[in-house]
């Protein structure tokens, strides 16, 4: 998975895994600002040709790391991301 980068497109509500300039996976989410700040992941998607490479797990870890950096909670609606809750 070393050729995969992760970027946060906050305006689009997508945490994206990118390889060779192509988005190969993503977590779609939105931000709640009240009553407390929270990241709310809705879907985790990895393109079929890239499955089994740990991309979804890397995206989930980065989502939780971003929430920690921002002092935000994670309120997952996506069952995959919910499974990563610590």
Give a structural overview.
By secondary structure, the chain is α+β, with helices and mostly antiparallel strands. The protein has one domain (5-82): Gcn5-related N-acetyltransferase (GNAT) (Aminopeptidase), CATH 3.40.630. It has helices at residues 55-70, 79-82; strands spanning 5-9, 14-19, 22-32, 38-46, 73-74. Strand 2 (14-19) and strand 3 form a beta hairpin. The two termini are 23 Å apart. 23% of the residues are buried.
Features:
23% helix; Aminopeptidase; five-stranded mixed beta sheet
Q: Percentage of helical residues? A: 10-25%
The CATH homologous superfamily corresponds to Gcn5-related N-acetyltransferase (GNAT)
Major sheet = 5 strands, mixed
Indicate the multimeric state: single chain
CATH class assignment: Alpha Beta
Radius of gyration: 12 Å
Approximate shape: globular
Count of alpha and pi helical runs? 2
Question: How much of the polypeptide forms β-strand, as a percent range?
Answer: 35-45%
Q: State the order of secondary-structure elements, H for helix, E for strand.
A: EEEEHEH
CATH topology annotation: Aminopeptidase
Work out the count of structural domains.
Answer: 1
Average pLDDT confidence is: 94
Low-confidence stretches: none
How does CATH name the architecture? 3-Layer(aba) Sandwich
Helices and strands, with pairings:
Layout: E1 5-9, E2 14-19, E3 22-32, E4 38-46, H1 55-70, E5 73-74, H2 79-82
Summarize the structure.
With 86 residues, this protein is α+β, with helices and mostly antiparallel strands.
